[in-house]
# Entry
Amino acid sequence: MSDMLNGKTILLVEDEAIIAMDEAALLERRGCAVIVASSGSAAVDAVLRNPHIDLVLMDIDLGAGVDGTAAAERILAHREVPIVFLSSHTEPEVVERTEGITSYGYVVKDSGETVLLASIKMAFRLFAARTALTEKSDEAEAANEELGATIEELESTNEELARSQEELLQLTTLLEQVFEQSPVPMALVSMPDVTIRIANRACREFLGILDEPSPVGTSLPDFRPTFEDRDMSGALGAVGDLPLARSLRGERTVNEERIIVRKDGTTRRELVNAVPIVNERGEIIAGYLTLIDITERRKIEMMFEAIFRLSPIAIALTRFEDGRIVQANDRYCAMTGYRLDEIIGKTSLELNFWPHPGDRDTVKRILAKNGSFRDREITFRRKDGSLYDSQQSASVITIDGERYIIAATKDLSDERAMRETLQHREALITAISDNLPGAMIYQIDRRPDGTRVITHLSDTVRRFYGCSPEEAIADPTRIYGRVADEDTARLFEAEEEANRSLSRLDIEVRMIDPSGAPRWSHFVSTPALLPDGTTRWDGIEVDITERKRIEDELARSLAAQETLLRELRHRVMNSLSIIGSLAGMEGRATESAAVRAALLSMGGRIRSLAELYDMLPLSAAGEIRLDLYLRRIIDAFARSILHDSSRIVITATGDEISIDADRATTLGLIANELATNAVKYAFPDGRAGAVNATLRRDGIDIVLMMSDTGIGPPPGFSLSGGTGTGMSIVTMLARQLDGSVSFERIDGRTVFTVRVPYGA
# Structure
């Protein structure tokens, strides 16, 4: 078939240049020579000038001037040439206009390459057949055969057209699938029934209706969404006011920001674009909508807005073209002394920022040439007229097609003042650390691989280790190598534990000074973990050699004093025991019962004090185990007073109680007096019985109970009325301890109870 077109000259009449270029290229690929005319009159002139034109491919609508049908009539008036009409119009009245003209086909634009070429070939065949019939009647049979071939060609063309329609159907199906799977949310509503024709998966998912029946096929006025479409004020509009509905009324919506509240309560932000789709006659046939999810972008914008507002660096955004400030943060206002409403819309010249106008010209020139600069020192003027030095970095950025300058400015005045203060403090700290008597300040970094780097040493290192700070920093073994062998393991174990737990290191170790003599050092340091995993130790080393020497001497002195005190107590106890024994011997030897009783009572009191002295070296912090002391008093009393232990049995029991020695002494004397009275008065005439001393803790009180199975006090006995010396002593001693004494007769037993506060 291509041989029929090869070498043919075709006049292409088309007023649309791009379409003409495309169709000309198609024909040239088939071997045709193509002449292009953009108007009807130009087509007529081309046919008159060129007798070799074999066919005219004529557009009907050629704009102003002669249209395609009129041009065809003029051409046929001068010359018989096959004309094929090519048009986008399918209206009956347009097609009828061509039927009165000798034409060889009517091809609808965009019918495809196959249809166009087949129509041209058919036109050539029809023209050839017509020419043959006109010129030679004897060639009618050949014309009929040619006509048959043409019919066959037409049938072939119909087959090709059917295949093209099938391909178009497949392409349509493919486009529908692509539309459905597109990640961009899209929807389409068609006219005139205002029916939702397309709502792809991304759209349904964005709106939160993916698990609901598809809205496709639903009339837009009847659509009842489960989501809420709100404008930025939060207002909920009617369906007819939504961008898609507005597009059906011819309105174009470009990047309108809205809020979607889905059925599950989640909120998304969107940019909506909705446009009307029109046909060749300008009629709206559909509305097309796309959504852009900007939820995350808005979150990021809000985050950066917060960063911008709260940044400790002064930041301002300025239009490049006119230099007007469009935004500035709080720090910028504080730095310049202006309120935000005084800055926005003004230029730096209007705000009188530049004490040296040449600086502004230099900055603009650099930005125009390089687009940015960093850490440039510039002097500015505040609102109050004061000048301040700053360090500024700036860059030109493009936002929505417009250039802006974003500048970050740091006020160097405060920084320089802080730096001077810091330098002063560092100098002060250095002076203090270098002059600390007997102490060295240090800083050591322990890296993650375990290596140690000394970063600072006070000048005391010269006296401690015989080297300069620089020498010790260059060679840490000048310090670590001076730890005494017997303390090395202990020091490193303590350091490892402190490094692991980031706890305080507090340790005393022996070091070797430059002369080779041992000395004691007290290391105190607290580690801090740096971001790179390094542990930083800021600490102090104190020479405690003299303190250790004094402590050793003090320990030896205390040991000697303790030995002396123990010997002194032993001697006092022996002396008291001797006095008590002498009193007992004298009491038993005297014939006077009163003297004997007084001496025996006195001996018991002395033995009580002797037992206390014997216990004092065994106690801690000056306290006495009162229960043990009570047992010893009772045992000593029984040994010295009761010669016939089978007649009167005396025992002592009690809770474990510790009190100070002074109070223990008083309670011991009370117990001695009560036991003496019981033995003396409760068992006359060789009567047998038992005496029991009990000690217990009762809440906040100590309770001492002395009970006996004797005859009991005489009638009318009272603690407050005319009692003997022993009971007077008991009452007086109890009061001395802020306590009380009581007695009662219970089940044949006499019970004396002494109650004193535990902590008095």
Summary: Confidence is low (pLDDT under 50) at residues 617-621. The CA atoms of residues 112 and 164 lie 8 Å apart.
